[in-house]
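Figure 2 data, in text form.
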Amino acid sequence: MKAIWNDKVIAESDKDKLIYIEGNWYFPPDALKKEYFAPSDKHTTCFWKGLASYYRVDVDGSVNEDGAWYYPVPTPSAINIVKKDFIPKLLGPYLEVDPIFGTGLNNLIKASYDLLNLITFFTTGEDESRAWTTIRGAAAPIAGKSVHTDFRDKFIRAEVINWKDLLDCGSYAVARSKGLVRIEGKEYIVKDGDVIEFLI
């Protein structure tokens, strides 16, 4: 399989050596044409994969800023998923290349959220974690309506923690023992990145 940018092959590998997660192909480091990649100062954090580091892709003067990224230290949950479902022996960081959209699609989504004044909050449980959208400045019951109208109409209180604090702790039990889970009432203004358990 090949990743192509500006009519040049920038990464190439046998398909059985790649990892496919959430619609993206991850190439092993030795599959990259290193002359086309330069480290970027950009870093972002994925809720379940961990901290991402970026590369700038430059082919004959055609530049894709932050067009490739990888996870140097994946979270335990991401490592387990990769080992179980994709490649049993995962050696080294894998780089993700999206030559068609680059970061343009991500930037479009972020700009759209800003334009529409929206934020994202999360709910999580034993079976799944989900992201929800609400208007910026929404009180907890209004945000809860995104999940179910009962969370607005029958709202009593909400348990709230920032996503990064929960990820760092690894579980609600540890987060509670550190006093990071807060009890909030109807007037609480939901923040971008909150993880919320609605109590009705």
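Caption note: The domain at 2-110 is CATH 2.170.150.40 (Metal Binding Protein, Guanine Nucleotide Exchange Factor; Chain A).
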